[in-house]
């Protein structure tokens, strides 16, 4: 028996890298999985279904497009049932160049905000009513430890993750009476497949590791226990919080 048997979990950006690890972890606890990703998630969904013995389907969705999110919410609910877990993981990070303030293009800033902030807002907007009908729900926004420390040459990304933490607090206040818990999971730098594909971020690994109480690199598996806790009944009295999983680099 898994902690999430029979639940339906939505994972944005779930076709690849950290998002796929999140989807696999929830499926391993018995949740059925709806992947929303700009990528084709067919292979990921098939592999998860076969491995965990759950239902898993994928949709290609631009999380910054409200019409697309609305259609996805309706279709996923019809096909898999009402979702009571939402993991807002889709974000721009690994592919972002490191740019000084003066060199940062305004259109890139806008794109980061659209995906990293508007995306979680839209997903919550269209899945909260589904959760409200069930009188329960867990919304987990994936933040970042950089929002609490700052990071040079990543101003849009860091700002977007600070906004996500603010969104979490607001939604926790607004949705608590409906039985919906909203929390932020804030990783430190994780050596995920997407980061390894863009190694310019790994140049900061030594500095990041030195800032940690547990002085080693982070890997995707380090986040999964916290994710399952926030998705499960074990966290039913936890809301509006940020859980930093970064080896003790940030003290919140």
Walkthrough of the structure:
By secondary structure, this protein is of the alpha/beta class. The protein is built from nine helices and seven strands. It has helices spanning 17-28, 42-52, 66-80, 106-134, 146-149, 155-175, 193-197, 205-210, 221-231, and strands at residues 8-12, 32-37, 56-60, 85-88, 137-142, 180-187, 242-245. The protein has a seven-stranded parallel β-sheet with strand order 3-2-1-4-5-6-7, with helices on both faces. β4 (85-88), α4 and β5 (137-142) form a beta-alpha-beta unit. The chain is globular and about 45 Å long.
CATH class: Alpha Beta
Binned, the helix content reads: 40-55%
Structural class: alpha/beta
| Cα-atom radius of gyration | 17 Å
CATH architecture: 3-Layer(aba) Sandwich
Q: State which percent range the strand residues make up.
A: 15-25%
Main beta-sheet annotation: 7 strands, parallel
Give the overall shape, derived from the CA principal axes. Answer: globular
- Tally of discrete structural domains: 1
Mean pLDDT: 93
Uncertain segments are none
* CATH topology (fold) name: Rossmann fold
Name the CATH homologous superfamily. NAD(P)-binding Rossmann-like Domain
Output the number of helix runs.
9
Features:
9 helices; seven-stranded parallel β-sheet; Rossmann fold; alpha/beta; 45% helix; 252 residues
